[in-house]
């Protein structure tokens, strides 16, 4: 995939935000194009000295543009800010998962390695990492693997991975596995994806995630367009079959850097009641409920989230 092809598919959502391509070298997959967006502190008319760097990592089905309301504000406060499209999502490359074992490439190990490589090769300095949903697991794993590169973590409505095999009722497991196989290996999965990859369906899903009716056409377009890219359906079906890998409770005890957890009080997918059990880990310095927030509060209530990040 060429840089020109990728960037021609996207539009500038905010005139302060620029986008570019990072060539990510993966040991198994080779050279891959990763799209990212950025706002450099020095590009803005501010007198504040540079305070550091912030890398934002999206969740399942998301992309870098979900952070469009956060990057300019954080940058104006003295940070060089970046948001990446995880491999398989947004406008990053989408290697065909059917050429590999199930979940061999679209997993938290790959996305952690991608994030570490981005910090090493693009940011080139220790960085604060802000994550949402499943992006939090990638961020936690990166912090465990390379604590020298990550100064602190902010986890926003962290995925609790409720369909992980260890979180399933033993009676439930064979049925979940059979349904995942059905979607991944038959035309049923592509039919299912086709039904949800439509503006009305995406808007309904986002209204549920946001727990209100604040969803507009801009965010629907941000989520939908990359989902129509070649290969997106296979990535989707591969990841919904991912019931292994690390859980938050596996990683948090190993984290040696400060962690702050933000959680939307109205999150319907990852209820705050379940999230509160993670506030007692040694690395967690604060657990912040977000009144009115759903699953993606960085987009839904950005002023509150930006304040808590800073």
Task: List the topology elements.
Blueprint (H helix, E strand, L loop, with lengths): L2 H6 L9 E9 L3 E10 L12 E6 L13 H6 L2 E6 L23 H16 L3 E6 L2 H11 L4 E7 L16 H13 L1 H10 L2 H12 L6 H11 L4 H8 L8 H4 L7 E6 L7 H4 L8 E7 L6 H4 L1 H8 L1
Parallel strand pairs: 3-4, 3-5, 5-6, 6-7, 7-8
Antiparallel strand pairs: 1-2, 2-4
Helix pairs in contact: 3-4, 5-6, 7-8
Q: Can you describe what's shown?
A:
With 310 residues, this protein is of the alpha/beta class. The chain has 13 helices and eight strands. It has an eight-stranded mixed beta sheet with strand order 1-2-4-3-5-6-7-8, sandwiched between helices. α5 packs across α6 (187-196). The longest helix has 16 residues, at 108-123. The two termini are 36 Å apart.
Helix content: 25-40%
Strand order of the largest sheet: 1-2-4-3-5-6-7-8
Poorly predicted spans: none
Mean pLDDT across all residues, rounded?
87
Distance between the termini: 36 Å
Overall radius of gyration: 18 Å
Structural class: alpha/beta
Count of DSSP strands: 8
Shape: globular
Q: Order of SSEs, N→C?
A: HEEEHEHEHEHHHHHHEHEHH
Largest sheet, strands/sense/barrel: 8 strands, mixed
Our count of helices gives 13
Please indicate the percent range of residues in DSSP E strands (runs of 2 or more).
15-25%
């Amino acid at each position: 995939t060429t840089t020109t092809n990728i960037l021609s598919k996207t539009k500038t959502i905010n005139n302060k935000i620029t986008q570019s391509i990072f060539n990510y070298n993966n040991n198994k997959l080779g050279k891959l194009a990763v799209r990212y967006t950025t706002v450099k502190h020095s590009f803005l008319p501010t007198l504040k000295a540079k305070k550091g760097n912030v890398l934002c990592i999206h969740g399942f089905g998301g992309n870098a543009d979900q952070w469009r309301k956060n990057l300019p504000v954080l940058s104006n406060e003295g940070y060089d800010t970046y948001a990446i499209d995880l491999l398989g999502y947004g406008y990053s490359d989408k290697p065909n998962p059917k050429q590999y074992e199930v979940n061999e490439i679209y997993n938290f190990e790959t996305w952690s390695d991608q994030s570490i490589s981005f910090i090493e090769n693009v940011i080139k300095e220790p960085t604060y990492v802000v994550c949402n949903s499943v992006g939090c697991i990638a961020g936690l794993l990166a912090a465990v693997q390379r604590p020298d590169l990550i100064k602190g973590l902010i986890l926003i409505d962290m995925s609790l991975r409720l369909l992980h095999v260890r979180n399933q009722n033993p009676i439930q497991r064979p049925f979940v596995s059979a349904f995942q196989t059905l979607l991944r290996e038959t035309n049923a999965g592509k039919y299912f994806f086709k039904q949800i990859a439509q503006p009305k369906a995406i808007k309904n899903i986002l209204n549920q995630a946001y727990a209100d009716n604040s969803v507009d056409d801009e965010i629907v377009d941000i989520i939908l367009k990359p989902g129509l890219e070649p290969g997106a359906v296979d990535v989707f079906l591969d990841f919904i079959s991912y019931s292994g890998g690390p859980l938050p409770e596996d990683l948090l005890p190993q984290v040696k850097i400060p962690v702050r957890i933000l959680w939307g009080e109205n999150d319907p997918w990852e209820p705050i009641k379940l999230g509160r059990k993670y506030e007692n880990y040694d690395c967690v310095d604060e657990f912040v409920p977000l009144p009115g927030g759903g699953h993606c509060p960085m987009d839904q209530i950005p002023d509150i989230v930006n304040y808590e990040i800073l």
